[in-house]
């Protein structure tokens, strides 16, 4: 695999985890957030499907999702659910930043920039809900 394809696979794996973990988040989140969670999960499924299509179209064997993913911290209430959702978005942003920098085609770079932008916005919204400041860094997807 090329570095661009490896980055696309890493982004796909981040999407698999995001889709799964949003199910966990939904189970513990405030009922007022259910619509938002459903929207964000649908966005992750759409990105996942785009990555599967791009990888398959390039002749790359598409990895399957793991049976389960472990949240970065225990999810026991609405606050911990929101923290996990923010972490999911940070992981997604990092994966898409890598795809954007390693992408070797317009299609992969487009997936990288749209995925990075969407993850940064969703992550910022979760941090606003948590009362965390700043809500985003100057360069989303770069871990400090």
Automatic annotation (TrEMBL):
InterPro entries: DUF4439, Ferritin-like, Ferritin-like_SF. It comes from the Bacteria. Residues 7-143 form the DUF4439 domain. Signal peptide: none annotated. This is Ferritin-like domain-containing protein. It comes from Tsukamurella strandjordii.
